[in-house]
Amino acid sequence: MAKPVPPKEGKPLCNVEHVEFQSRADDIKAGLIDTFLNLQRIDTNLYIARHLLKGRHSYNAVYGGQVVGQCLAAAAATVDDTFIPHSLHSYFIKTGSVDKPILYMIDRIRDGRSFCTRVVKAVQDGEAIFSCQISFHQKEPDAIAHSAKMPVVPQPEELLPARDAALQLLEKDGVDSISAEVIKRALKEIPDAFERVFDVRPAYPDKYLLKEECEPYSVIWIRAREDLGDDHRLHQCVAAYLTDLSMLNTAVRPHVREGFIPSMSFSLDHCVWIHENTFRTDEWMLYETKSSKAGGSRAFIEGRLWTKDGRLVISTAQEALVRAPKY
Hints:
22% of the residues lie in helices and 35% in strands. The chain is of the alpha+beta class. The chain has a single domain, classed as Beta Barrel (Porin), CATH 2.40.160.210. It has a 12-stranded antiparallel β-sheet. A two-stranded antiparallel sheet has the order 3-4. Strand 1 and strand 2 (46-49) form a beta hairpin. Helix 2 packs antiparallel against helix 7 (232-242). The protein is globular, with a radius of gyration of 21 Å. The model has no long low-confidence stretch (mean pLDDT 90).
């Protein structure tokens, strides 16, 4: 039996207008809020994003953290601001493209007295690329209280931005050829726009940049370069945006130093728990990530985001796909 042939896209009807898509993501004057976290409400429960950031310079796939942050922004727009997001559970279903806008469709699952629940579906070309369930909680007093302690690491003022640290390391002797090649390739892949809006400083640059042996563990300082104002909901969205930043690399980095180069690697799912809602992402924050298990072409990574004064404000978890080259 012959397979059915999918219908071809015909000539558009004269009464159907096809709007040309243009993104300001690469505009040198574009800021974090007016582009990468900017959403337009087009109808009830429908939001569209037109300014999308690449995850890698040479690949038109949208940065996963941007989709996470935009999902939270869209969902937060549908709840009263007395409700605080406390958990987000999501799946990356299909690679999104920066060449087309993303439509965010919100399902208002429940509006309760203490909790609100939203499900957000991100769509491109009529297909879901990402799905996310977000729970919001009315602020309540502490019943019990305890917290882990932030690791003691060098302060950001003592450290170089990631690119400067990498270039300085490449100028020194003693960097093996594999590490040098990986560093050069990584520098080429970092989107200019990301470095324009965020300052990232590895706490242990020699380990981060593969000069020294390392465990699947990473610590970086990060902050937004622009003043983001005093709306804590916005800072929560920016934090969600950042949580996908270094997780996969944390799992892969020790193996890359031994010569492993993945043929494919990307996030499969991503979870965020927001413990406190009063923090600023335009001030220094410490992101600690650790991979406790890898196998079966998947890696599991956990993260903790701290304020500079030592408060644990966000925890994260992610599973990523990591495939070996096929020879």
